[in-house]
Design the sequence.
């Protein structure tokens, strides 16, 4: 899928930020185990904030990266099928065309007659 | 060609193919019959479509073979196979007496099992084919009593009533279809068409005719509301608003203000114009429209501009 440049940059930047936050947290945990004086050290606020911000930015970047969303309203989906914007594999006509073709009531004998007449004109 | 691509080819053609389409499909018979039988649902669906195509073009030898393979697999007493066997008998009957015989067979089958829906539908179609229209309608009303949720039967009943110009009954049947499938926008458009024809059949600009035209306009508007860029719907909106704006209808009978009708007419003109130009240039997103429908829309636009 095509991604727009601003969202690409945003994704790159926030991924970097997230990686940095992870690295910081890892380093911090190593640091706390080496100092016996402070047994219950919690993660510093700046690392928590960095993680949260980078995650939100990453989400915004992915969502806004310009992919085409599939229609969820019947109006646009049905319209797409009618106009040929959306192609449904192996199907002709609209979503409810079966109601007007009515396969159970097909008068094949009549169609056969029409075909014979068509052949004569060829 | 693979099974799925063959099946797609059959499904991309409507149940009412043009003679040349029928011929092309029917000519696929040898290559399909030579494929090894894999006993997949796709293969049997393909066989069923091919059977109808070969019957349309009169290739009875292939049809016989297909039917034989289908009944070997599913048995002769399968309701669907019985109906297909019936189609074969109808098509190969050479005179009226043989057709009556087929009809009698259907009646006998239904006497044993009145719930055999496919055969019941065949019997109704054959009655209609034999110009026994009232009997066909009678049988079909019995069938919709039996299966009131079968939209196809209601739609067919509406068609039969329409052919006899019994418009209120035809409208009622389609309203039943809408109770089952409320989103069926083509049925909304069809209701618009029937109301329009009913209005046309009334002479002059009576109160009733105006009521029918306005009902027609409302059905068409609902159709385009349910389906964006619906050519048939916009065509109807344009046609009916144009009719309502005629001087003989400008009497006090109308409930929709003239200004609104005018606006709707303009909207429909713009939409139709977009579709016609887009479709003629073969623009992306306009390739799905039927060329005959586009030509009709173009004609309407030219006639009213």
Sequence:
């Amino acid at each position: 899928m095509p991604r727009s440049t601003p969202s690409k940059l945003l994704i790159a930047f926030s991924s970097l930020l997230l990686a940095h936050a992870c690295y910081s947290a890892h380093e911090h945990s190593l640091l706390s185990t080496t100092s016996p004086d402070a047994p219950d050290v919690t993660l510093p606020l700046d690392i928590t904030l960095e993680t949260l911000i980078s995650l939100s930015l990453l989400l915004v970047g992915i969502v806004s990266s310009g992919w085409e969303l599939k229609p969820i309203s019947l109006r646009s989906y049905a319209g797409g099928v009618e106009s040929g914007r959306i192609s449904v594999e192996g199907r002709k006509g609209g979503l409810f065309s079966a109601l007007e073709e009515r396969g159970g009531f097909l008068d094949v004998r009549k169609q056969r007659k029409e075909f014979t007449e068509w052949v004569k004109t060829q | 060609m693979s099974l799925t691509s063959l099946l797609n080819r059959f499904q991309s053609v409507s149940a009412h193919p043009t003679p040349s389409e029928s011929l092309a499909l029917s000519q696929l018979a040898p290559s399909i019959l030579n494929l090894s039988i894999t006993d997949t649902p796709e293969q049997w669906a393909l066989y069923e479509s091919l059977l109808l195509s070969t019957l349309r073009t009169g290739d009875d030898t292939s049809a016989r073979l297909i039917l034989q393979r289908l009944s070997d697999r599913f048995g002769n007493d399968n309701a669907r196979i019985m109906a297909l066997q019936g189609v074969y008998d109808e098509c190969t009957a050479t005179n009226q007496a043989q057709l009556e015989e087929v009809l009698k067979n259907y009646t006998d089958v239904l006497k044993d099992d009145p719930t055999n829906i496919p055969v019941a539908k065949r019997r109704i179609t054959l009655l209609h084919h034999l110009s026994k229209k009232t009997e066909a309608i009678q049988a079909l009303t019995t069938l919709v009593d039996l299966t009131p949720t079968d939209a196809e039967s209601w739609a067919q009943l509406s068609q039969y009533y329409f052919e006899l110009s019994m418009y209120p009954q035809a409208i009622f049947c389609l309203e039943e279809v809408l109770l089952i499938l409320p989103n069926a926008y083509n049925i909304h458009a069809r209701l618009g068409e029937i109301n329009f024809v009913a209005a046309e059949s009334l002479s002059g600009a009576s109160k009733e005719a105006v009521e029918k035209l306005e009902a027609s306009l409302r059905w068409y508007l609902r159709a385009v509301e349910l389906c964006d860029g619906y050519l048939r719907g916009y065509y109807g909106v344009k046609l009916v608003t144009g009719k309502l704006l005629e001087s003989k209808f400008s009497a006090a009978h109308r409930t929709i203000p003239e200004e609104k009708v005018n606006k709707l007419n303009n909207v429909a003109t713009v939409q139709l114009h977009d579709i016609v130009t887009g479709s003629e240039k073969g623009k992306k997103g306009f390739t799905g429209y039927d060329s005959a429908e586009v030509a009709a829309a173009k004609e309407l636009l030219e006639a009213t501009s």
